[in-house]
Amino acid sequence: MDWTEIIAEVNSKDIETAGNIANMTVPYGIYIEDYSALEQEVLEIAHIDMIDEELLAQDRTKGKVHIYISPEDNPNEAISFLKERFNAENIEYKIYSNDCDVEACLENWRKYFKPVKIGEKLLIRPIWRDDYEKDGRIILNLEPGLAFGTGTHETTRLCLQALEKYIKKDCTMLDVGCGSGILSVAGLLLGAKSAVGIDIDELAVKASVENAKLNDVSEKYTGIHGNLADKVEGCFDVITANIVADAIIMLSADIEKHMNENTVYIMSGIIDSRVDDVLTALPDTLEVIEQYEEKNWLCLVAMLKK
User: Fold this and answer.
1) What is the pTM assigned to this prediction?
2) Cβ neighbours around 105 below 10 Å, total
3) Phi and psi angles of residue 57, each rounded to the nearest 5 degrees, phi first
4) Beta-carbon contacts of residue 40 (< 8 Å; ≥ 6 apart)
5) Which pairing describes strands 172-176 and 116-118: parallel, antiparallel, or unpaired?
6) What is the pLDDT of residues 253-277, one digit of tens each?
7) Domains of the chain
8) Using CA atoms, how far apart are residues 188 and 169, in angstroms rounded to an integer?
9) 3-state secondary structure (DSSP) of residue 146
10) What is the pLDDT of residues 281-290, one digit of tens each?
11) What's the distance, CA 213 to chain centroid?
């Protein structure tokens, strides 16, 4: 089936902010074209000064954010969201769209996804890459498919760093908005005895189950198709929610029913302009005990007040 490709063209100075905004529209990642520092980046990566003429002809003053919308979703909703947030940030933009073949999009993206070290213990390995050094790390084999969560985005990395600290042997875990299952699988590999992942996207749930199998932890993992935690019962020792700020606000209203006195509640996917909204929405019985930050993204760790 054909997907819709949405392209937002902005000034190069706004490309990072535009990319952060675009990441809120879809759960499976974006692609950014930015040629503003082309020569410098080519020299640093490839150590050559010869660049294809087609690349040299690109407009250095502009950047493009590519977003891919599945056939089941309405691209007009994503376009409306982009326009609203770009206007709020005073970003000049042009938005246009066309249909694209998802397999071609995926194949192009796979070329650039390489093994990545996270924190002190983990190495995320795309299953099609064998060029990595283990260096004593826990290997998390990943086939994200179309689900969000590869470890390359700041929000996921921040969550993984928090999990390294807060996952204890034989703890239980709930992963809200599980995406590819990367957080659930990481938790299990780090020592959790069980993990439940829930996502509104059926493709994401399927990907998470497959990734649990790839890492030999499928017997400890349960994937659920649902909205936030509406199909989940019981309490958990660690809860992760790597979702957008508005969804975290909705989840936090009832999160206490899934918490015991020592539960760690890890919230990520929060852009800095929304952190106050999330903090204000937290129940009075919760307190933030730690905060992780990278670029414009924050990850908050909360517990029940003693």
Assistant:
1) 0.73
2) 16
3) -80, -10
4) none
5) unpaired
6) 999 999 999 999 999 988 888 899 9
7) 2-109 (3.30.70), 151-304 (3.40.50.150)
8) 9
9) coil
10) 999 999 999 9
11) 21
